[in-house]
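Hey, quick one: can you model this chain's 3D structure?
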Amino acid sequence: MKRILIVEDDPSITQLLQMTFKHSGFESLNAPELKSAKAILKTECLDFAVIDIGLKDGLGYELVESMTKLNIPFIFFNGARSFNRKAIWY
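Sure thing. Here's the predicted structure for all 90 residues.
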């Protein structure tokens, strides 16, 4: 079974993503902040990640280096109605 990391601090969005991925046959691991996402990346084998840009303890962009080194594909998203930071492309 493919494993997906969901990095999202809003429990309702996390639950929606979990249900969607489970329905499609994926197992999901959840991290509500950068600190727990980094810990998961050190210990778990993952196939993909979905990362919120705006987290309570920083920006999801901070995970780019780890994801790239581990060769894990990822996508960023932002559920905020407004986001006043410049977009960063990798």
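One thing worth noting: The longest strand covers residues 3-7.
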